[in-house]
């Protein structure tokens, strides 16, 4: 910027419109993935016993070159059944209480 003037080249409207539409498309895909993950968490939380404990855990991926080797948080349900500890993956989102139906043990 020299003398208060900017040297940005103006972008023609069709190009701006194309960029906006591309960004809107990315946002829609991101929202669809988010809703899919939430739906998966609700589906996976069905039929969890009422005595289950839900924990938030971070998981290591095991790749040697992973820049952030603690991924998550992911939610898991733990409960004892016939003397054995059981574990069930719920998902990335903790489903609300009204979406969860517990099976009686």
Description:
- It is a single chain.
- This protein is an alpha+beta fold and 105 residues long.
- It has one domain.
- The strands form two sheets. Strands 2-3-4 form a three-stranded antiparallel β-sheet. It has a two-stranded parallel sheet with strand order 1-5.
- The chain is elongated and about 75 Å long.
Which percent range describes the beta-strand content?
Answer: 25-35%
Total E-strand runs: 5
Number of H- or I-type helical stretches: 1
What is the end-to-end distance? 71 Å
- Overall structural class, as computed from helix and strand content, comes to alpha+beta
Low-pLDDT segments, ≥5 res = none
Outline the biggest β-sheet: 3 strands, antiparallel
Query: What does the average pLDDT come to?
Result: 85
Radius of gyration using CA atoms only: 23 Å
Helical proportion, percent range? 25-40%
Q: Please tell me the total number of domains.
A: 1
Overall geometry comes to elongated
Query: Helices and strands, in N-to-C order?
Result: HEEEEE
Strand order of the largest sheet: 2-3-4
Task: List key phrases describing it.
single chain, 105 residues, alpha+beta, 3-stranded antiparallel beta sheet, two-stranded parallel ribbon, 1 helix, 29% strand, elongated
Give me a quick take on this structure.
The chain is an alpha+beta fold and 105 residues long. The protein has one domain.
